[in-house]
Write a structure and sequence with these properties.
Elements (H helix, E strand, L loop, with lengths): L1 H7 L7 H7 L5 E3 L2 E10 L5 E10 L8 E7 L1
Antiparallel strand pairs: 1-2, 2-3, 3-4
Length: 73
């Protein structure tokens, strides 16, 4: 699904409001970074053991110059 989103949808160049129209509200916004959680896996505790995020950076004028997928283990 994320491959289809990044390949078939022009996300770079959109502004923040256009992004929200195409996707839903993000899980987190901070320091010119918009984050959507793709996968969160939990071990036996309440803390996650694996996270995969879709991150989009944005400029002051809210234009999106880039995005990436980040994994944390």
């Amino acid at each position: 699904m994320i491959d289809d989103l990044t390949v078939h949808n022009q996300l770079v160049g959109l502004n923040y409001h256009q992004l929200i129209e195409r996707l839903v509200a993000p899980d987190n916004i901070d320091c010119r970074l918009v984050r959507y959680k793709i996968v969160v896996k939990y071990g036996s505790e309440i803390d996650p053991v694996y996270i995969q995020d879709f991150r989009l950076s944005y400029y002051k004028d809210s234009t999106i110059p880039s995005f990436k997928i980040v994994e944390w283990k």
